[in-house]
Structure formats: structure tokens, C-alpha cells
Design a protein that fits this description.
By secondary structure, the chain is an alpha+beta fold. 48% of the residues lie in helices and 14% in strands. It contains 10 helices and 10 strands. It has helices spanning 3-8, 56-68, 95-98, 104-117, 131-144, 153-167, 204-214, 219-230, 236-263, 270-292, and strands spanning 21-23, 30-36, 39-45, 75-79, 82-86, 91-92, 173-175, 184-186, 191-193, 200-202.
């Protein structure tokens, strides 16, 4: 059965034939828009993805808590391998939107709201996302899969170890952990945060670093993100720890793509994505090392 057929045959549709419309842009899941009795829904088709640490029961719990916290659309139906949410009519953000000085503070407020409010509604066993464990696990997966990037792994793991030492002890919040621009939707009145595949307890610095690095915001904007989120002037210590976590976020994205090169069946140019994020990581790590001298 194809993902489209699976989406069309879900038991939640009201006794009539529906025609799933492919929703482009996803690089982890297969997504569709389905219209049923005058309403529109997003259907995400996909099972657990062990190589990426994705467990659908965690995604479901996070999605439900995010709706209760007022940051994400409502989940209306779930079946094994399928998640159905209300469709949000709006504009999916791009990196240049995140970099807009009028938009960025709104995104930081939304991220802070998610960190603060979602744990109040979360049910079930807690999920943890620690980027340095993810990087080490990806390295094992790449070595076992005889990845073309295997020769890079000793250098990348050594860099990750240095970054983990620099981050040091952390505050724990409930993170989204995948703050690509495309996971924000502006409906004209408010902004929604979607796609909770990687959600789990984490340092707030990871989401802030991901928000900054994935959309390549300026150094001045990175300072404003930290000052707004923490509500105080940015110290040299916080600046260095944030720089370390931003580099780690870029490393994780690069290694995510390396793993996807050998394990994903989606039609996406993961090799180019890997090259882009490796270049960004190398620049961020060099800047971190310069800051540490």
C-alpha cells in the first residue's frame, strides 16, 4: 500500500472517498492534505525511524501537549503509522522570514512559550534529546552503514566532545529540537509551531541555536535572541556556551543528513544538504574556537 492509499483509507473519514493531496517540503515524513466534509486536515504517514530516534508515541504526546499549550494545531486522529491534524491555512516561513527583525522576536516568544507551557500538559514517559548523544549515535550508525563520510567521524566526534565540555551544565526545558524555518506557519494572526518528531527535554540553548543556525541569522540577531529569551544582558560565558550549542546544532543536522543519505527513501538531495550543513558547521566551529582563545 502506498502512503497515499494509506492516507485515503484512514477510519476517520466520514464514509466517503477522499483524495489526499501531496504536501511538499517534508524531508523526514510523507505528508498529505485531505479535505473531508468541508474541513482540511494534514495527514503524516510514517512509522518509527530508529536511526533518527523517532518514536511516534513521543511525537503524538508532544503534539497533543503542544496543542494544549496553544502553540500547535490539534491532533484529531491517530492510527499506527498515521497522524491527522487540523490544517492551518497560512504561510510557511522561509529562512529570510526568520531573519526579519519584525518576525524574529515573535518566534523567540513562541519558542519560550513552548518551553514553558508544554510540560504542564505532557503525558506519559518523558523523552530526552541530548544532541551530543545523538551525534555519537549517528557516528555508530554511519560506521555500521559504511557511509562515505566515515573518514570524517574521528574529527567530528572530537569537535563534539569539545563543544559538550563548553556547553557545561544546563537548564532543562521541553524542546522542539528541529527549528527549521519550515516548521513555523504564519496564518496572519499568529504563528504556529509544527512537527514534533524530535521533541524532548533538552537545554533551551539547543532550540535557540537551531533557530539561529538553520536560518543563518546575523551575529547581532543572535545576541538579541539570547537577551530576549533570558531577559538579561548577554555575558561572555552565555555567549560562548550558546556558540558551542549552535555549532552542535549544525553538526547534528549535517550528521542527520549523512544518515539519511543511506537510510531514507524520500526523493531529496541529502548529499547536497550534507555538504551545506558541513560547511556551516565548519564555519561555526572555527568561530567557536576563535572565541575560546
Amino acid at each position: 500500500m502506498t502512503p497515499e492509499q494509506r492516507a485515503a483509507q484512514l477510519s476517520c473519514w466520514h464514509g466517503r472517498r477522499v483524495t489526499p493531496e501531496p504536501l511538499t517540503g517534508g524531508i523526514t515524513n510523507t505528508n498529505f492534505v485531505v479535505r473531508d466534509r468541508g474541513e482540511a486536515f494534514v495527514v503524516r504517514i510514517g512509522g518509527d525511524i530508529p536511526v533518527h530516534g523517532i518514536l511516534r508515541r513521543n511525537e503524538l504526546a508532544a503534539s497533543q501537549a503542544a496543542f494544549a499549550a496553544g502553540v500547535s494545531p490539534e491532533v484529531v486522529h491517530v492510527e499506527p503509522g498515521a497522524l491527522v491534524m487540523r490544517f492551518v491555512a497560512g504561510r510557511t516561513l522561509r529562512a529570510e522570514d526568520v531573519r526579519d527583525d519584525a518576525m524574529l522576536p515573535r518566534l523567540v516568544d513562541l519558542v519560550a512559550q513552548a518551553h514553558r507551557e508544554i510540560p504542564k500538559h505532557l503525558r506519559g514517559a518523558p523523552a530526552m534529546f541530548w544532541v551530543f548523544h545523538v551525534v555519537r549515535d549517528y557516528a555508530h550508525t554511519l560506521a555500521a552503514g559504511r557511509s562515505s563520510h566515515a573518514a570524517r567521524l574521528p574529527h567530528l566526534l572530537a569537535a563534539a566532545e569539545a563543544l559538550e565540555r563548553a556547553v557545561g551544565p544546563v537548564e532543562i526545558v521541553f524542546g522542539h529540537n528541529d527549528l527549521l524555518a519550515a516548521n513555523f506557519i504564519d496564518d496572519g494572526a499568529r504563528i504556529w509551531l509544527i512537527d514534533w518528531d524530535y521533541a524532548g527535554f533538552n537545554s533551551p540553548l539547543f532550540d535557540l541555536g537551531g533557530l539561529a543556525s538553520n536560518s543563518e541569522v546575523s551575529a547581532a540577531q543572535r545576541e538579541r535572541i539570547l537577551a530576549q529569551y533570558f531577559g538579561r544582558p548577554v555575558t561572555d560565558e552565555l555567549r560562548r556556551r550558546a556558540a558551542a550549542m549552535m555549532a552542535a546544532a549544525l553538526l547534528r543536522e549535517a550528521m542527520w543528513s549523512m544518515v539519511s543519505e543511506i537510510h531514507s527513501a524520500l526523493d531529496f538531495d541529502y548529499a547536497a544538504y550534507t555538504a551545506d550543513y558541513l560547511s556551516r558547521f565548519n564555519a561555526a566551529y572555527a568561530a567557536f574556537e576563535e572565541m575560546s582563545r
